[in-house]
Amino acid sequence: MDNTKTISHMALLSIPIAIVIFVFKYCAWYLTGSVALYSDALESIVNVIGACAAWWAIRVSMKPADKNHPFGHYKAEYFSAVLEGVLIIVAALLILNEAWSALRNPHIIEHPDMGLALNLLAAVFNALWAFMLIRYGRRHRSPALEADGQHIMTDVVTSVGVLFGLVAALITGWAVLDPLLAIIVALNILWQGWKVINSSVQGLMDTAVDAEENTRIHDVIAANAKGAIEAHDLRTRLAGRVTFIEFHLVVPANMTVGKAHKICDRIEDALQKDIKNSRVVIHIEPENEARGAPDTTDFSFT
């Protein structure tokens, strides 16, 4: 199975899993009446919506380039991640509202054993799935898949905190711990929502590759540019799963177009092999017409 199909199948599978987790958490809240468990269940509704949005965005991102989108549809995944971040923040605000009401009228939760057991089971299942989503999202450079996994992992941390807090409330008899815990959960969700939105916006702004990958690109070009003189104006940008690489290649003035083209093909093949899902654009310059002033993106092969 190729990368795109793997990503699409993972995103689609997230939808029924998110629904099952939500049912577990809803039952836990229904049995106990705990506002902290209510906050956990409410966040799971966001998981369901986020999973649907991620699947849709990934499907769109896989569409081939067309007349109106000549560079492809890869950035569609960032829109999904932004939407998920916004939904996370909305969920946090709803939780704060519910927690504030419960804080003024706290009560001991009912049927805690069954409710906490259901929530624990949901947390374990969620943790395993979140790990898989983050792993695949990073491996295949899918912002939507990774954002979904990060959000679910936040949900896991929330669930664990809720479980410990409710056990403490039951042991001490301090009913006020339940709404206080819900407020803490909401604040944590707000922070996670902001991080998801910020990361996605950076992607929409054409963020360059990190320093380590930039060095790899330099090394690949240098190792496969035999016959050329230097490269300069290296530019990179990330668009979902795809890395766009662009630079100028200086060749001897008397080199034929055919020989220069062979060098470009060799470099392009090497980059696409080493940098998965890369798109390479090389501008050839004869030595006597290359621009003069060097900058930090210059690197000579001689």
From TrEMBL:
It holds the Pfam family Cation_efflux. Keywords: Cell membrane, Membrane, Transmembrane, Transmembrane helix, Transport. One of its GO terms (molecular function) is zinc efflux antiporter activity. Residues 210-287 form the Cation efflux protein cytoplasmic domain. The chain crosses the membrane at residues 12-31, 37-58, 78-96, 116-136, 156-174. One of its GO terms (biological process) is intracellular zinc ion homeostasis. It is a multi-pass membrane protein. Its main location: membrane. Signal peptide: none annotated. It is found in: Cell membrane. Residues 12-205 form the Cation efflux protein transmembrane domain. GO terms for cellular component: plasma membrane. It comes from the Bacteria. Belongs to the cation diffusion facilitator (CDF) transporter (TC 2.A.4) family. PANTHER family: MITOCHONDRIAL METAL TRANSPORTER 1-RELATED. NCBIfam families: CDF (TIGR01297). This is Protein p34. It comes from Candidatus Tokpelaia hoelldobleri.
